[in-house]
Amino acid sequence: MKKKIITAAISAVTLLSLAACSSSATDDKIATMKGSTITVSDFYDKVKTSDESKQSVAQMIIYKVFTEAYGDKVTEKEINKEFNASKKSLGDNFAAALKSSNMTEKSYKELIKQNLAFQKGMEAHVDLTDEDIKTAWDNFHPEVEVQLMTAASEDDAKALLKEVKKDDADFAKIAKENDKNTDTTYKEDGGTAKFDSQSSNLSAAVQQAIYKLKDGEISDVITDTTYDSSYQMVTTYYVVKMVKNTPKGNDMDKYKDELKEIATATYTQDSTFQNKVIGEELKKANVKIKDDTFADVLSTYIDAAESTSTTESSTAESTEETKASSTAETESSAAESTTESSVAESTTESSK
């Protein structure tokens, strides 16, 4: 987890604190001035109508519902794994990140538990089909190990490529020491990177180009165009050496666990699926909004669940009507056949 996940909880925590204050100490003064004061109640009434506050309330309700329903399925081992990964990722900045979010290690672990409970709840609603597994297999590639460098221009990339293609060239040394290598993620490890088709550090286009390389083979310059957070186009140039490429082969059963994870993630990361599941869990928990200010904060999810329910109901009714119609036609055909047979027999007997 990154720092942004830690800080995302701050607005919800702040709002919860304000709500508690407003109900127990509405007259506590924040500031005084000539002829006027600003109280906690004044402040709460002001901020609770903001879009951020409404979003926070929705988040608090959703996490509460999912934690109550699926929290017992989250283990301490899972929580500690996420906690330690976050701590390692932030390094010396971890304590400062917690402090800036008004959180302790204990409250952060509670947040991790909520996130994991949410994920468990999503997964509980996934019902995989053979087609889902087949789709996952079509886009799957096992983990590969490569050495890579990036450059800011095509000329710099070509210069790097020329260096690594020299006899006895040391890719790791060039990756560490050549200033034309702009990569910072893998540079200290000599450019060594491991990833599979589910990794997100490299774009899908770059990964597909890399998968075509054989062990020991060095790519031509790979050009990749993406967009940054400001929607500005960014072009990056890659030079890649394949260390170990593992073809997936034809045995799908060999990777059945990975494929199930991939197929499941396809559902749980889809916003339409998420909204539907959240709506269903909110209805199951009988959530009622008591403050008119927040009357519509859950409408997106409730509407998604009801829309899906209506569609499924219509589909079921249509299927039943089709079956009924088919049965009626069959019975009618059978009746006609019986009648025709009886008429034929009657005519034959009359002729005799």
Automatic annotation (TrEMBL):
InterPro entries: Foldase_PrsA, PPIase_dom_sf, PPIase_PpiC, PrsA_foldase, Trigger_fact/SurA_dom_sf. Keywords: Cell membrane, Isomerase, Lipoprotein, Membrane, Palmitate, Rotamase, Signal. Transmembrane segments: none annotated. Residues 305-317, 324-352 have a biased composition (Low complexity). It holds the Pfam family Rotamase_2. It catalyses: [protein]-peptidylproline (omega=180) = [protein]-peptidylproline (omega=0). It is found in: Cell membrane. It is an enzyme of class 5 (isomerase). Residues 1-25 form the signal peptide. It comes from the Bacteria. It is a lipid-anchor. Residues 125-222 form the PpiC domain. Residues 305-352 are annotated as: Disordered. Its EC number is 5.2.1.8. Plays a major role in protein secretion by helping the post-translocational extracellular folding of several secreted proteins. Belongs to the PrsA family. This is Foldase protein PrsA. It comes from Enterococcus diestrammenae. The lineage of its organism: Bacteria, Bacillati, Bacillota, Bacilli, Lactobacillales. The gene is prsA.
